[in-house]
Amino acid sequence: MLTRREFIGGGLASALLAGCGGEREIPGELLGPNHALGHKLRAGVFDAPSKTERVPIVIVGGGAAGLSAGWKLLRSGLGEFVVLDLEAKAGGNAAWGENEVSRYPWGAHYLPVPGPHARAVRELLRELKVITGEKNGKPVYDEDVLCHAPEERLYIHGRWQDGLYPRLGASAADLKERDRFHAEIAALRRRVGRDGRPAFAIPMENSSRDPELLALDGLSMAAWLDQKGYRSPGLRWYVEYACRDDFGGTLKEVSAWAGLQYYAARGEGEDDQFLVWPEGNGFLARKLAESLGPRVRTGALAFDVAPDKDGVRVDYYDAASGESRRILARRAIVCAPRFVARRIVKPLREDPKPSGFDYAPWLVANLTVDTPPAGTGAAPAWDNVIYLGEGLGYVDATHQSFSLDRRRAVWTYYRPLTGDPAARRAAAYKTTLAEWRELCLSDLERSLPGLRERVTRLDAWVWGHGMVLPKPGFIWGSERREAAKPLGAIHFAHSDLSGYSIFEEANDRGVRAAEAVLAALGKPFRSSL
């Protein structure tokens, strides 16, 4: 177990002491998922249900997968379902907030322009008018949500540079390795496996099952770089940044298949763009929840999902009334992360085998900033990263604003808590808001001296189980594949079941489960897969 000193870092204690001599207190709150209901689930003590109702389909979990499942059912003409979510607002790790300056994300903050395999995501974006038409066989996107330039910058050697590869100070040998790496990724983008499928695709179920490609999952990304002779510190940092950003893990913690998927399954050229909103993917969660209307029940903690003679019995605790309630359904779709599913689904609860699923903890902080500092060098961008920084830098939630008055902004700071997940999680839960504030500001002030004097508010959110960690051997291992299979009338849908957490995978899992339910009930539908 890590000590507090090991978790916070050697330099923080002195920084905190130095700040105790009358330094301005920055207001804020320490937030996170609903711990009160979460603790109630862990205690496992609930009253017998006081009411019973019959609903054909119950969706447990209102994150991106659960909302996508409901969206698919509703689009297919089946509106008799409910979505149970324990939070006050559905969205899962696409949670978002808002203040007088802007909306802002508490989780996922962008969506890459989806490729041709992400058909359901494209359908959703057309429905939301994010895709406005088609040109030369490709979707046309609303320019207001395509990330405006400048997109990315990196702080290195005392100044900001354009782009995220650490170009300043790079040697000729470093640049040669960078170019070789990009050429190798380009070849993987074009590669087709022996089964005729693309080597890497999003959603991942569309990827090749060629054994030579799947063998990459048995390696760490660090081992793959070693095998290929990539030694440049700048390149290795660049690739590790991607692993920390998408998976919450280091080069040694992340499967090479996952690490290469990050690059090779995405577009290139004009297609390699981001869709961004002030609240990040909270925009998508909000629109999905709105489309489902009163079918979404918040403050509803499902605590027992069990097979029943006519289908499924779902017992849940209603926080508003303080009562337990029961739903008898023909089918259930459990869209909770696996560590939660193993607590609430009776057949899983009774199975003593370890699950094989690990989760990376995260800190996300939102800073409200007056007269935002620009720093030295390249102009402020949407994504602002610090070379060798403890965190991932910050994303400007107000970047897309057309207002000429940019005297205030909201910046979202991301910090994966890498290392042993259980130890990091335990330490994170004991860390105070003041300590998180200092961690955040001391990291960012390396690139923006005096920043803390311009921060008027800093709120922090701890994700103890922020995202599933794609360890070597996990994505194409038996635990993940078995977990995706239904148990009778109980279906499962969550990005966990893809082995890594992005919106496209959550959407795909939700739509797949909804289509399986529609087929089982004999309801006609047009497949989105």
List key phrases describing it.
single chain; alpha/beta; Polyamine Oxidase, Chain A, domain 2; FAD/NAD(P)-binding domain; Guanine Nucleotide Dissociation Inhibitor, domain 1; 3 domains; 5-stranded parallel β-sheet
What is the topology?
Blueprint: H1 4-8, H2 12-18, E1 30-31, H3 35-43, E2 51-54, E3 57-60, H4 64-75, E4 81-85, E5 96-98, E6 103-105, E7 111-112, H5 119-127, E8 131-135, E9 138-141, E10 152-156, E11 159-162, H6 172-190, H7 211-214, H8 221-228, H9 233-247, H10 256-264, E12 274-275, H11 282-292, E13 296-298, E14 300-308, E15 311-318, E16 323-329, E17 331-334, H12 338-344, H13 346-349, E18 359-370, E19 383-386, E20 394-396, E21 408-416, H14 421-430, H15 433-444, E22 455-468, H16 478-483, E23 490-492, H17 503-520
Parallel strand pairs: 1-22, 2-16, 3-4, 3-17, 4-13, 10-19, 17-23
Antiparallel strand pairs: 5-6, 7-12, 8-9, 10-11, 14-15, 15-16, 18-21, 18-22, 19-20, 20-21
Helix pairs in contact: 4-11, 4-17, 8-10
Could you walk me through the main structural features you see in this protein, from its secondary elements to its overall organization?
The chain is of the alpha/beta class. The protein has 3 domains: 4-31 and 359-468, Polyamine Oxidase, Chain A, domain 2 (Alpha-Beta Complex), CATH 3.90.660; 36-95 and 281-356 and 471-520, FAD/NAD(P)-binding domain, CATH 3.50.50; 148-272, Guanine Nucleotide Dissociation Inhibitor, domain 1, CATH 1.10.405.10. 31% of the residues lie in helices and 22% in strands. The chain is built from 17 helices and 23 strands. The strands form 6 sheets. It has an 8-stranded mixed sheet with strand order 1-22-18-21-20-19-10-11. Strands 13-4-3-17-23 form a 5-stranded parallel sheet, with helices on one face. Strands 2-16-15-14 form a 4-stranded mixed sheet. Helix 4 (64-75) crosses helix 11 and helix 4 crosses helix 17 (503-520).
